Amino acid sequence: MKNEMSKWMRVALLSTAAMNMFGALLFVPSFSGLREFLGLPNPSHGLYLWIISSWIFLFGVCYLWLGITGRRERLFLVVGAAGKLSFVVLMFTYYLAGEIPLTAALASLSDLFFAAIFAFYLWKTRTE
Prior knowledge:
Elements: H1 7-26, H2 32-38, H3 46-69, H4 74-96, H5 102-106, H6 109-124
C-alpha cells in the first residue's frame, strides 16, 4: 500500500518512541539525579521541565502510533527529524560554549541517529 511504511522504519519509530519515553522521564522535575548524572543543568522552576517532558512524551506517543499503525505521515517525520536535529545542535553548542559537559552532548547522539534515519526515509520515499 502506498501510504504504508516499511518494516525497518516502523522498528525505528518504535525504538525512538521508547527513547522519547525515557527522555520524558529525564525531564520530570523530581528526577533531578538523572539530569545531574548526564550533566544537564537544572532550571529554576519545575514548570519548564514539565513543558519539556510533556512535549517529549507527546512526540513519543506519536512515534509509537506511527510505528504501530504503519501510517506514513511525512510532515510529522519532517518535524520529528528537525526537532531531533535541533536538540543535538543545541546540546553540542552548549558543550562548545562550556555550559554543559561532553557527556550531556554525547547523550544526544541517539537523536542524531534517528534524525538521520527519518531524513533518509523521507528522501528515499520522496517520489512515492
